[in-house]
Design a protein that fits this description.
The structure holds two protein chains of two kinds.
Chain A (H helix, E strand, L loop, with lengths): L1 H5 L1 H18 L2 H8 L22 E6 L11 H13 L3 E4 L19 H14 L2 H19 L4 H18 L10 E6 L2 H12 L6 E6 L8 H4 L2 E6 L8 H5 L11 H7 L3 E5 L24 H14 L25
Parallel strand pairs in A: 1-2, 1-3, 3-4, 4-5, 5-6
Helix pairs in contact in A: 4-12, 5-6, 6-7, 7-8
Chain B lengths: L1 H12 L3 H6 L3 H21 L1 H6 L4 H32 L7 H11 L14 H24 L4 H34 L7 H14 L1
Helix pairs in contact in B: 1-3, 3-5, 5-6, 5-8, 6-7, 7-8
Classes of the chains: A alpha/beta, B mainly alpha.
Chain lengths: 334, 205
């Protein structure tokens, strides 16, 4: 312990250098992909399906937050997907796009530092320590920054849009049917969802973006999307980083995509009650309850389901605005 | 020699008067040019991402490195000229152009950190901060080297900037054409437009 205290300065310097190195190298995954001799031709259209499509069919693509490693969704997030599916059975849920890699390559996939990310991923699951969680988060935050950067964003977003499109096709999507597409982005995944929307809105299908505690910049995807729904918990402080860090979100820049979309009525903010950003009490928590007894997880699923069905959101009901957290401690989610 | 270089770097970054005095000597002037070249190289490294977006070959990258350094040198010399004009005609200061040039060279030292502009998102903010830092060094230099008050130094730098801005507005597009030719970028890709056109064709076709 005394050694640690004596070397705290050196350790801080080392930590700072590693973070700078991660930030400096962040754009290169997207840039390497772009400069390689890539085939940008989109996959062939699928053959027409003989059976009629179910009424109200829609495609929902879920893009995870910065804690994701791309291996699989956290249980709480998978639970959210299942709940939405229960409420809207005709929705086709797509969860196999890792939003922090232009080639949909998970951190533990084919990459030079896969061994390191695998170790950190396993360690954080076993030890449940922030120490391991931090590095995966830092790496993914840098990819969110790549996505929001006007220099690298167009390329990054193109790669993600292509992967989302491929995943949609793999799940039976036929662009000729104009089936609605919903992109749900949690936390930093919201930025990537809006980035992908920049290109996916060129589909014939209406593309709607739903952000859950979303941290995002003012990018063209906001005005190009059919609509933007923002689910915001009153105790979620992280969500306020977007309006601070990204100048386009400042009210003074009236011509920004965010401000224009707001004026055009294309943005709906859904107050979610006293939900926090991540951890117990977040949007996917089953052990916390609103005053009417609805769990946070169910309420989030209800709001998303109502958006998918095009119905007025239950989140706008005033009963939830002053809600406070229930204290049952049954949650076994990460 | 390297220690002198680091010394000058530190002094100029911290707006110390010693750096403006040192640059008046022959050795100091040489060191200031070396720092300027280091800044130009660092800036070119910061632009590596943009070059990769444009799928630059190694030859194009080398051309861009040289072209970028040449463009930066030219703009520094013009900027020095603008400040010298403001100093001579507004404040009737009998100064030598080379003295102002030395000061402007010193003011470009923050550019040694411009490789950091490659960092996504924050890099753009960093670029803005570097420009402010450079302007502060110019004002500090005018204040100490030419015995202007801080307010006069701000006015002089602002007038120089206005002149520079007017010149850019008048000849900027022609200069940009030359710069593009130097960088060999005239036939380069516009990734966003290319991607959009491709997707439109594929998705709506």
């Amino acid at each position: 312990m005394s050694w640690l205290l004596a070397n705290i300065g050196h350790l801080s310097l080392l930590l700072g250098l590693v973070i700078i190195a991660i930030a400096l190298t962040a754009p290169f995954e997207a840039l390497r992909w772009w400069t390689a001799d890539i085939d940008l031709t989109l996959p062939k259209l699928p053959a027409r399906r003989a059976d009629p499509r179910p009424a109200n069919e829609c495609y929902v693509v879920y893009l995870t937050g910065i804690g994701g490693s791309g291996e699989s969704l956290a249980r709480r997030e998978q639970g959210f997907i299942d709940r939405v599916k229960e409420r809207v059975p005709e929705a086709v849920m797509v969860t196999d796009v890792f939003p922090f890699s232009v080639t949909n390559n998970p951190l533990t996939g084919e990459r030079t530092l896969a061994w390191l990310w695998s170790f950190l991923h396993r360690a954080r699951l076993n030890a449940k320590s922030l120490l391991f969680e931090f590095w995966i988060g830092a790496r993914n935050v840098c990819q969110v920054a790549v996505c929001s950067d006007p220099r690298y964003g167009p390329i990054y977003n193109l790669g993600i849009a292509r992967e989302v499109y491929q995943a949609l096709l793999d799940h039976g999507f036929d662009p000729r049917d104009k089936t609605p597409v919903y992109l749900i982005g949690y936390s930093g995944g919201a930025q990537v969802a809006l980035g992908a929307a920049c290109y996916l809105t060129r589909l014939r299908s209406p593309v709607t973006v739903i952000t859950v505690g979303g941290v995002f910049s003012s990018i063209p995807g906001i005005t190009l999307a059919n609509h933007l729904h923002c689910l915001v918990g009153s105790k979620d402080r992280t969500v306020h980083l977007g309006p601070i860090m990204f100048p386009g979100r400042w009210p003074i820049l009236r011509a920004s995509h965010w401000n224009r979309a707001q004026r055009d009525g294309k943005v709906t903010i859904h107050p979610m009650g006293p939900m926090i950003h991540s951890g117990k009490g977040d949007y996917f928590t089953r052990s916390c309850h609103l005053p009417d007894g609805t769990t946070y997880a169910d309420h989030t699923a209800d709001v998303v389901a109502s958006i998918l069905r095009g119905a007025p959101s239950p989140a706008t009901a005033s009963r939830h605005l002053q809600a406070h957290a229930g204290e049952e401690n049954r949650d076994t989610d990460r | 020699m390297p220690s002198d270089l680091i010394h000058l770097l530190f002094e100029s970054l911290t707006l110390q008067e010693a750096s403006f005095i040192q640059v008046q000597t022959e050795q100091g002037y040489r060191l200031a040019w070396m720092l300027f070249l280091a800044g130009a190289t660092s800036r070119a490294l910061g632009e590596a991402g943009i070059l990769m977006i444009n799928r630059a070959s190694k030859t194009q990258y080398l051309r861009s490195l040289l072209g970028s350094a040449a463009a930066l040198t030219f703009s520094a010399l013009v900027w020095a000229g603008c400040v010298w004009l403001a100093l001579t005609f507004l404040f009737l200061h009998q100064s030598d152009y080379l003295d102002v040039q030395g000061l402007i060279l010193v003011s470009y030292t923050p550019l040694v950190f411009s490789f950091i502009t490659i960092v996504p998102h924050l890099g753009l903010l960093w670029n803005g901060l570097l420009k402010i830092w450079m302007l502060l060094i110019t004002i500090a230099g005018l204040n100490s080297q030419f015995e202007l008050t801080v307010l006069q130094a701000i006015v002089c730098a602002s007038l120089g900037w206005l002149l520079f801005y007017l010149l850019t507005a008048l000849f900027g597009s022609r200069a940009e054409q030359v710069r593009v030719r130097l960088l060999g970028r005239q036939d380069w890709l516009r990734p966003k437009e290319a991607a959009v056109a491709l997707l439109e064709r594929e998705m709506k076709g």
